[in-house]
Each structure stands twice: as C-alpha cells, then as structure tokens.
C-alpha cells in the first residue's frame, strides 16, 4: 500500500514515459534475415501473380504482397534505428543512404507487381546484411550466431 502511494506520487512529479521496440521488450535481437524473408515472399508472389490468369488469386497476391512489403520495411527500419550506432556509420559512411534506398524500395515493391523490383530490394538487403555481419551483428545480436 505504501509502495503504491509512493509510485503514484512519483508519477505525478515525473510522468512515466513509454518505450517502443520492435517487440514488447527491447530484446537486442536484430537480423536482416527477417526483412529478406519478407522480400523473398514479395518476389515469389509477383512471379506467381504473373503466371496466373485467375483474377481472384491475383487479387489475393496483391494484398498479401503489400503486407509482406510493409513487414520488410518494418524489419529494416528497426534494424537501422535500433542496431546500427554512430561507430557503424564511421565504418560505413553509406549506411544511411543504403537503408534509405532499401526503405524506398520496399515502397516500390508494395506498389508494383514487377518481380524486378523485388530483386532490387533483395540486392539492397544483401548490402545491409554485409554491413550487419561486418559490424559483429551475428555474434552480438543472435543467441548462437546466425543459424546455418
């Protein structure tokens, strides 16, 4: 009871702030592989869309691909904003530009059914993956490094 009153008093003096992370707890697990899986889904969906003449199937493809493109963008944004630090920017001066182009490419993938747009996104994710690896990502953000 006393503890509750004390916390209520502290809250009136300095209101609590809300923390945001890609999950409910800032876990420190980051890997561009999450974005890659979503981007690969976009590419495969665009290919299946092109191979089909079923309009219902094609409409489903568009909606699902848009969701996957948003998820790829989310995973890239979290990696950029939460994992990469100023010292990484010193090592990779093009880091911000590469992420900016990748995020823009996620939007392009979302708005297009052209598989080539998905391939461009995968190429940018490859660049980000190399930066992540060379800055110690697998050893510092994965429990046992990156699986296989």
Describe the protein's architecture and organization:
Helix content is 72%, strand content 0%. By secondary structure, the chain is mostly helical. The protein has one domain (31-136): Four Helix Bundle (Hemerythrin (Met), subunit A) (Up-down Bundle).
Short synopsis of the structure:
It is built from seven helices and no strands.
Order of SSEs: HHHHHHH
User: For the terminal residues, how far apart are their CA atoms?
Assistant: 52 Å
Strand content: under 5%
Helix content: over 70%
* CATH hierarchy class name: Mainly Alpha
Count of alpha and pi helical runs: 7
Rg (C-alpha, Å): 20 Å
What is the CATH homologous superfamily assignment? Nickel-containing superoxide dismutase
**Low-confidence blocks of residues:** none
Structural class: mainly alpha
What is the fold's blueprint, element by element?
Blueprint: H1 2-13, H2 33-51, H3 55-83, H4 86-91, H5 95-110, H6 115-134, H7 137-141
Which key features would you list for this structure?
single chain; 148 residues; mainly alpha; Four Helix Bundle (Hemerythrin (Met), subunit A)
């Amino acid at each position: 009871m006393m503890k509750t009153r004390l916390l209520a008093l502290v809250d009136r003096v300095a209101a609590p702030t809300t923390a945001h992370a890609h999950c409910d707890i800032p876990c420190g697990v980051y890997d561009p592989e999450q974005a890659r899986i979503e981007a690969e889904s976009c590419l495969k969906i665009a290919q299946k869309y092109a191979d089909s003449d079923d309009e219902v199937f094609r409409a489903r493809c568009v909606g699902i691909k848009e969701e996957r493109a948003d998820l790829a963008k989310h995973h890239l944004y979290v990696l950029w904003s939460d994992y990469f630090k100023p010292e990484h920017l010193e090592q990779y001066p093009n880091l911000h530009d590469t992420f900016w182009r990748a995020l823009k490419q996620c939007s392009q993938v979302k708005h297009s059914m052209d598989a080539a747009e998905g391939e461009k996104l995968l190429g940018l994710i490859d660049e980000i993956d190399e930066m992540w690896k060379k800055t110690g990502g697998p050893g510092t953000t994965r429990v046992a490094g990156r699986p296989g």
